[in-house]
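STRUCTURE:
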């Protein structure tokens, strides 16, 4: 057993579309524990720190603008290998091709229409999870 914690964000599209409950339902149905949760409008400083690995990429500025476009729900969850487990629940980055059964595959909109918008963020490694949890909580 490797009990870990990870950061999940319900991005502005997920909150605006009323999908926070459905995303929480999937997290809880999998057996993960909710440790902390809050609704906030992240500052540019927080988003710059959160997305520092993407600074300079073509999608960086539109991504940060999208993340500033409305409230976000930040969730701290715990569970056995939850970092990779939540990434599996979320599905691949582009919802256009994310697998059915995943959050992005079932609920996400085609990136041809809604580039950047893919409903959720999940930390991608133990190092990212520790760093991101310290930023958001
Ligand atoms: P991830 O969220 O699946 O870990 P990352 O590569 O870390 O994906 O990218 C962070 C976020 O940036 C994505 O979730 C998505 O919102 C956005 N993004 C990533 N790649 C692209 C792209 O090629 N075009 C537009 N937005 C992108
Ligand atoms: Mg990522």
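SEQUENCE:
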């Amino acid at each position: 057993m490797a009990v870990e914690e990870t950061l999940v964000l319900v991005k502005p599209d997920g909150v605006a579309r009323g999908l926070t409950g459905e995303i929480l339902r999937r997290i809880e149905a999998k057996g993960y524990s909710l440790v902390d949760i809050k609704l906030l409008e992240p500052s540019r400083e927080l988003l710059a720190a959160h997305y520092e690995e993407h600074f300079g990429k073509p999608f960086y500025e539109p991504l940060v603008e999208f993340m500033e476009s409305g409230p976000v729900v930040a969730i701290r969850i715990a569970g056995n290998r939850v970092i990779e487990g939540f990434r599996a629940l979320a599905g691949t980055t582009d919802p256009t091709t994310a697998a059915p059964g995943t959050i992005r595959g079932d609920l996400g909109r085609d990136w041809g229409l809604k580039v950047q918008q893919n409903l959720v963020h999940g930390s991608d490694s133990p190092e990212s999870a520790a760093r991101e949890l310290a930023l958001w909580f």
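REMARK: The first strand starts at residue 3 and ends at 10.
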